[in-house]
Amino acid sequence: MTEWDIKKLQILRTLRDRGTVTATAEALLMTPSAVSQQLTNLSKQLGVRLLEAHGRRVRLTDAAHLVLRHAEAVFAQLERADAELAGYLQGEAGEVRVGAFSTAVPALVVPAVLRLRAAHPGLEVRVREAEAAEAYELLSAGQVDLALSLAAHAPTARDPKFSRVPLLADPLDVALPAGHALAGAPGLRLADLSGERWIFGGSGPWSEITRAACEASGFVPEQAHSAAGWTAILAMVEAGMGIALVPRMAAAERASGVVMRVLEADQPRRHVVAAVRRGAESAPAVSRLLAALREVAALREVAARR
User: Fold this and answer.
1) What is the pLDDT of residues 225-252, one digit of tens each?
2) Whether 145 contacts 276, CB under 8 Å
3) Alpha-carbon gap, residue 72 to 13, rounded angstroms
4) How many CB atoms are located within 10 Å of the residue 134 CB?
5) Confidence band (pLDDT; 50, 70, 90) for 156?
6) Which of 162, 180, 208, 304 measures 20 to 30 Å from 133, CA to CA?
7) CA 161 – CA 141 distance, rounded (Å)
8) Cross-strand partners of 198
9) pLDDT tens digits, residue range 74-126?
């Protein structure tokens, strides 16, 4: 029977995800030569060629991709075994590590932690603020157990490494200066704001979300200023420098000179999801945190409909 070495398979999977031997070595805290040696040994053990030269780099062969398709099922089963063992050994105690984007921390993660603290005081949650790309790198590397991100920047449901859990659809409201001519206008729509100066990030998810929402309403927003943090964006809105779409999860940061208007006719939203390594969702700490996050998200959605 062919010998399957889990550690070497994990190195091969990391090479597939990171793209280069150097990046793989950095992710696994190994030297590039050690990575190459381990993969050479794996190729000999399996009796197939796993890598081929591609310019100055290497790429995985079709055989390597075949091996990894089967290995993903093994990794998922090992995660389930770890989850069951953790439940046996830890009971009500344990630790779960979370990577979450900035507005999700106060709006979702902190309320979920407070719920867990009351129900399971022996369960510890460690939080790390991270945007989607970093959060999924941390999740893949085993440095966090759960990642929160916008659905548009999460792995697809077909990704064999992760399980996705939808949490909520977060409404987007428009922030206007208190003295704006449309601050009190009834039935405000995005199209009514087509001639305004807009504030949003120069790139990244919020730029994409703002542009997509406005384009769905028939116009391309004129970007007057670029900022990524809600404190900076809302300060500029208050000063009359422009207007902005703001997720309701971030509305707590608004200044007194800013009016938040609900766009009932347009109803733009961003979708928030959680992701875990496939097979790990049954670990006691992870499943309890997921349940708490779902409860908090459900309460937010009920409040948003009022």
Assistant:
1) 999 888 899 999 999 999 999 999 887 6
2) yes
3) 9
4) 17
5) confident
6) 304
7) 11
8) 223, 243
9) 899 888 888 777 765 554 667 899 999 989 999 999 999 999 999 888 888 99
Q: Sign of the CA dihedral 292, 293, 298, 301?
A: positive
**Which helix H or strand E contains 166, and what residues bound it?**
strand 162-177
| Phi, psi (deg, nearest 5) at residue 19 | 95, -30
pLDDT at 250: 84
The DSSP bridge partners found for residue 223 are 198
Angle at 67 between CA 64 and CA 71, to 5 degrees: 130
Q: Quick one: which of 258, 247, 238 has its CA closest to 213?
A: 247
Tell me whether residue 283 is exposed, middle or buried, using C-beta atoms within 10 angstroms of its C-beta: 0 to 12, 13 to 18, 19 or more.
buried
The residues that bridge with 97 in the sheet, in sequence order, are 126
Residue 4, both tokens: 């399957």
Give the integer Cα–Cα distance in Å for 95 and 101.
20
What pLDDT, on a 0 to 100 scale, did the predictor assign at position 39? Answer: 94
Whole-angstrom distance, CA of residue 66 vs CA of residue 53: 18
Asked if 282 and 84 touch (Cβ cutoff 8 Å), the reply is yes
Cβ 99 vs Cβ 134: under 8 Å: yes
Number of Cβ within 10 Å of residue 237's Cβ equals: 27
- Tell me which DSSP letter residue 153 carries: G
Strand, helix or coil at 47?
Answer: coil
Q: How many CB atoms are located within 10 Å of the residue 188 CB?
A: 19
Task: Give the pair of three-digit tokens for residue 259.
Answer: 């009016």
Cβ–Cβ contacts within 10 Å for residue 111, how many?
17
